[in-house]
Amino acid sequence: IGLMRSGRLLAEESPQVLLQTYGCQSLEEVFLKLSRKQGNDATANNVPEVNIANNISLATLQWGNKKDEPVYVTEESGVVGLMFHQSKEILIQDHSNGHYDPNGKSVMMIEQEDDNSSCGDCCPLTTKGKTKALLQKNFLRMWRNVGVMLFIFALPVMQVILFCLAIGRDPTGLHLAIVNQEMDWATKACPVLSNCSFTHLSCRYLNSLPNDTIIKDYYPDPESAINAVRVGDAWGALYFTDNFTDALVARMVLGRDADEETLDQSEIRVWLDMSNQQIGLMLNRDLQLSYRDFAQDLLSTCDQNPKIADIPIQFKEPIYGSNDPSFTDFVAPGVILTIVFFLAVALTSSALIIERMEGLLDRSWVAGVTPLEILFSHVITQFVVMCGQTALVLIFMIFVFGVECKGDLLLVIILTILQGLCGMCFGFVISAICELERNAIQLALGSFYPTLLLSGKYHIRPLFG
Fold first, then answer.
1. Is 225 helix (H, G, I), strand (E, B) or coil?
2. At what angle do helices 351-358 and 409-433 cross, to 10 degrees?
3. DSSP letter at 256?
4. What's the whole-number average pLDDT of the chain?
5. Domain ends where: 309, 344, 362?
6. Average pLDDT in the 299-324 region?
7. At residue 177, what are phi and psi to the nearest 5 degrees?
8. What range does the domain containing 189 cover?
């Protein structure tokens, strides 16, 4: 710490050393001792006091023969405790209060020449020293704030990991309430035959359902199965009549001559819980694909063409993507751009506001820094941070979790960085509009969904497949 009184630095040391040196119990006692000593020294030296106006001009002082005698400015002058010593150089006063050296050049001209000679390697917009100081300030403020560093680098990694683990994968362990009146309810025996036998076809169909996705729960009647769906114990209910096999065989044999009762008895009645559209559509797909596999397997065992059981629509290889699309691959580009964009907004929207509130911005203005230099320093800082974020996000998304990328990886990196630059500019706009950090956070959060829905981030798919 430093102890000052009347514009003079009395002592500068650590608090413990000051307490031990002066034998005091508190810093107030140390300051009191130093103040008394300063007063005694001033009295002993008998320093002459000169009353000077608040705007002190060294050129108007009476130098004369008192070149080595200090000029003490009293409290009445407005500047307290300042000691002015005359320079050893010969100063000549002119009509403009400028000082000249013996060669006839003014001090201001010499300073301008020095400035021009020292800035030969600087660009006309900024100087190397200012840019370096601003960049050091920005990087040090981030580096010393552990929370900001975790927000910058740990948050995008966590978001990518959670997205890849939770979004786009097929759900497993879905309960289905099944009522099969062809099986023996007492023993729950449902024989599955693999030969060309047209008996217990309902059991054969249930055996073709995917076991990793669907868990089969058996109920005695349709009412109890539907009630299980209502209370949330199952995602759907299946009902097979007691003559399902006979009706299905008659339907295949009779064809267009089948009567209405045969068609009705040969149908599988399904009730689904469509409150979750994703799960409902997936169950609908699995039930239909399982019936196709069941029919094709039955025809193959009976030496029949399995294509008879397939629908008369043949899907060729898609132009883009695959026949088995992944929802994770579809959403991944939008998630990457969203993470980089809004992290840039969150970091830059409060940067200028915090500097303004802490007084750093005023100190920069006083030091001669221009707005362009401040903006340039923040852009460089955020660009370096954004490159690190982009590298982490793409590494975890593409190389760790295997999200498919069929295009040029360099184009993906360029698009991501450009999106981050857009977020950076938007953050600077918010920090320029808002005066308080609270208002900037509210505006950034309020603009999240409109920007997400209107910018088309979830339509950039060709590069990722």
1. helix
2. 40
3. G
4. 78
5. 309
6. 82
7. -85, 115
8. 174-309
Cα-based distances in Å from 103 to 30, 83, 93, 111, 113 = 50, 29, 14, 15, 15
73 vs 34 pLDDT, higher one = 34
Q: Treating both helix axes as pointing N-terminal to C-terminal, what angle do 155-166 and 371-394 enclose, rounded to 10 degrees?
A: 40
Residues in the chain: 465
Question: Same domain for 336 and 235?
Answer: no
Q: What is the arithmetic mean of pLDDT over 249-278?
A: 87
The residue type found at 373 is E
Half-sphere exposure of 203 (CA within 13 A, CB side): 17
| 453, amino acid identity | L
Task: Write out the two tokens for 146.
Answer: 């552990």
Contacts 24+ apart (CB under 8 A), 60-66: 60/97, 61/86, 63/91
Residues 396 and 281 reside in one and the same domain: no
Same domain, residue pair 336 and 431: yes
> What burial class does residue 155 get, using C-beta atoms within 10 Å of its C-beta: 0-12 exposed, 13-18 middle, 19+ buried?
middle
Residue 309 has pLDDT above 60, yes or no: yes
Average pLDDT for 32-55: 65
Is residue 433 exposed (0-12), middle (13-18) or buried (19+ Cβ within 10 Å)?
exposed
Verify that 179 and 301 share a domain, yes or no. Answer: yes
Number of compact structural domains in the chain: 3
Mean pLDDT for the stretch of residues 67-88: 43
Regarding whether 392 and 291 lie in a shared domain, the answer is: no
In this predicted structure, what is the pLDDT of residue 126?
63
The count of C-alpha atoms lying within 13 angstroms of the C-alpha of 347, restricted to the half-sphere facing its C-beta, is: 35
Domain co-membership, 355 together with 393 = yes
Instruction: Please check whether residue 241 lies inside any domain of the structure.
Output: yes
Domain membership of residue 24 (yes or no) is yes
Look at residue 101 and tell me if it is in a domain. no
Question: What is the structure's pLDDT at 239?
Answer: 93
Q: Which of 240, 285, 288 is nearest to 266 (CA)?
A: 240
- Please report, as a single letter, which amino acid is at residue 263: L
The answer to whether 286 and 210 have CB atoms below 8 angstroms apart is: yes
Closest CA to 118 of 105, 129, 107: 129
> Angle CA(362)–CA(363)–CA(366) in degrees, nearest 5?
90
